[in-house]
Amino acid sequence: MQVVLVDAGGANIGSVLFALQRLGVEATLSADAGVIRGADRVILPGVSTAAMVMGRLRELDLVDTLRTLEKPLLGVCVGMQLLYERSEEGDVECLGLLPGKVCKLPGSASLRIPHVGWNTLQSVRNSTLADGIAGGDHAYFVHSYAAPVTADCVFSSEHGQAFAAVVQRGRVAGAQFHPERSAGVGARLLQNFIEQGLA
Q1: Active site amino acids
Q2: How confident is the model over 101-141, as pLDDT tens digits?
Q3: All structural domains of the chain
């Protein structure tokens, strides 16, 4: 099983690698299109802005590689947001693998943005990604922008409004929360992705 992390400059790359190592998976960090295409599983991490990470993918000439990838792809945090058509963060065109637009979460005097900390997951539909994870379980989030709850949503969460926490359509999936910081829930999500793929 060859697992590749796309080296798009995200600050959470090291922690995702360590999370995979805890599962016994030695992943490869690469920005090489051939290596990415040859992987059994591809993970697109990202802690930055949508515009910065998309800019990095364009510099590396990896946009078409990810758009046409035939193996299971998991986006994490900003990496998940890039799976959509556009992001309001910088009004940037994204990968377009999932329909919809990523928008800023609503803030108020009593509701802080960014959304930081543990939050509850609500089960929306079945997916192999969800095996062993239940509605009511908690995951760790750090984000100001989020994707809408659509037919692709597996788990939602809420911060001012409902948003997509885990999504999946065919070979493409994403987690808005940080699996590498979400204890057993995050480990199980990564394990499901590695061992079962997407169905």
Answers
A1: 77, 178, 180
A2: 999 999 888 889 999 999 999 999 999 999 999 999 999 99
A3: 3-196 (3.40.50.880)
Pairing of strands 3-6, 41-44: parallel
CA 73-99-135 angle, to 5 degrees, is: 65
Angstrom CA distances, 2 to 41, 71, 119, stand at 7, 11, 32
- Tell me 130's DSSP state: G
Amino acid identity, position 156: S
Burial class (CB in 10 A: 0-12, 13-18, 19+), 117: exposed
SS3 96: coil
pLDDT in tens, 44-71: 997 788 999 999 999 999 999 999 999 9
